[in-house]
Amino acid sequence: MTEESKLACQAIKSANIIKSLCELYGVSLKEATDIYYQSDISELMEEGVAELHCRSDKYLATLIWDEHKEDTGHLVVPTLI
């Protein structure tokens, strides 16, 4: 895989995670983009840590949302099933 194709795959993955943030949490595209790029997970993905690119977009969006809520001082209360 060339460096260009790796960057393209990473860009697509990032876009899909941002889209998932919008869909799952009803935030605007701008807000979702800001949340994504301020997250630790986006940095780890850029570095290729822990094979995060293999995780589903919605799963990663959920982790990023939880991190965002912790950073902004909101408690994240899990839903009981």
How would you characterize this protein structure?
With 81 residues, the chain is mainly α. Helix content is 68%, strand content 0%. The chain has 4 helices and no strands. The chain has helices spanning 3-25, 29-37, 40-47, 57-71. The model is unreliable at 76-81 (pLDDT under 50).
Helix content: 55-70%
Shape: globular
Q: How does the helix and strand content classify structurally?
A: mainly alpha
Radius of gyration based on Cα positions: 13 Å
Total DSSP E strands: 0
How many helical elements?
4
Q: Which oligomeric form is depicted? A: single chain
- Poorly predicted regions are 76-81
Strand percentage lies at under 5%
The helix/strand series, from N terminus to C terminus, equals: HHHH
Task: For the record, give the distance between the C-alpha atoms at the N and C termini, rounded to a whole number.
Answer: 42 Å
Largest sheet entry: none
Integer average pLDDT? 87
Summarize the structure.
The chain has four helices and no strands. By secondary structure, the chain is mostly helical. The longest helix has 23 residues, at 3-25.
